Amino acid sequence: xxxxxxxxxxxxxxxxxxxxxxxxxxxxxxxxxxxxxxxxxxxxxxxxxxxxxxxxxxxxxxxxxxxxxxxxxxxxxxxxxxxxxxxxxxxxxxxxxxxxxxxxxxxxxxxxxxxxxxxxxxxxxxxxxxxxxxxxxxxxxxxxxxxxxxxxxxxxxxxxxxxxxxxxxxxxxxxxxxxxxxxxxxxxxxxxxxxxxxxxxxxxxxxxxxxxxxxxxxxxxxxxxxxxxxxxxxxxxxxxxxxxxxxxxxxxxxxxxxxxxxxxxxxxxxxxxxxxxxxxxxxxxxxxxxxxxxxxxxxxxxxxxxxxxxxxxxxxxxxxxxxxxxxxxxxxxxxxxxxxxxxxxxxxxxxxxxxxxxxxxxxxxxxxxxxxxxxxxxxxxxxxxxxxxxxxxxxxxxxxxx
Length: 402
Known about the structure:
With 402 residues, the chain is an alpha/beta fold. The chain folds into 2 domains: 25-147 and 286-360, Rossmann fold (3-Layer(aba) Sandwich); 151-283 and 372-390, Rossmann fold, CATH 3.40.50.2300. Helix content is 38%, strand content 21%. The protein has 12 helices and 17 strands. It has helices spanning 39-58, 82-95, 107-120, 154-166, 184-200, 218-227, 237-250, 263-266, 268-272, 299-310, 316-335, 340-348; strands at residues 25-32, 62-64, 67-77, 100-102, 124-126, 142-144, 175-181, 203-210, 231-235, 257-260, 280-283, 292-293, 297-298, 351-354, 357-360, 373-378, 381-386. Helix 11 packs across helix 12. The longest helix has 20 residues, at 39-58.
């Protein structure tokens, strides 16, 4: 496949400046964090959006009722603040006349913007708001390409079922320890683990809610040492992941399987080296997966083109953001119109295979076709071990004892 680098010419990265487009340009609006605490992931988000726009335009644009249209994006900086994000969404719609929005970075910003798009009937495809609470409000204009938060570590339960069967054990005999920060995101993950544990008849022996800004897991790890669960799952954002790895090693706590979120942002390999070995890490996407499409090619093709363009390997935030743009392009073509009602109906009927994964929205706007990925740290590198059908390496189980 060919990779096109257009230098962002087709992408309008504007703030307070007026701009003009041709009659054959579809303008998408996006309030994305270019400053503040989410600015790094906001940049990943924008890079994914921009790359997809460039690729689509370079390959003939979006065909709507037989006519080619370029895509462009009008950006504002939400400053990593929900109130500012809501204000800018209102501005994009009411003042700038934008009829379609791409989502911001983070669940909190998405929660702030979703009521605005719903009020105005403006479809929004988002890629970086995973909280399942986004999809319990009956919104008809919100569509999310990523796996929602309750799915983040549920796949570790499926792997536990598989390794139990492989070793001749009844999966219902397996025990699980849970340690989750007491915030909405981590508690959503907890709910997914509990649901899957119940599905397999597994027993939860530890269910600890941890404080924000987690710096000590000693009480939980003391119970782990005493109860010897088959699996320990942890979600405490970056600090929680680092704390868990550090104290598991310091206190010489052993579990046959360890799974957690935020391995990448905590840099557990760089910080802890061999101490991070065989940890399972949740992710939305990996470049080694076998997903592919006609625009981007394979997941690996996307990763190579992205790194050539931006000089760093794409995190999943960039990949899912590119997929969001592709979803809009597909919906515009299938709708055969730029009428919002027609496009909304086309979005709701999406069944799309992409380099990022399959996309199929349920009635709440969640993508129900793409599972989470589980990496395992093996030899100081992240290897996909789950779901098993897309694994690049077999899981190391049980984790060797020190």
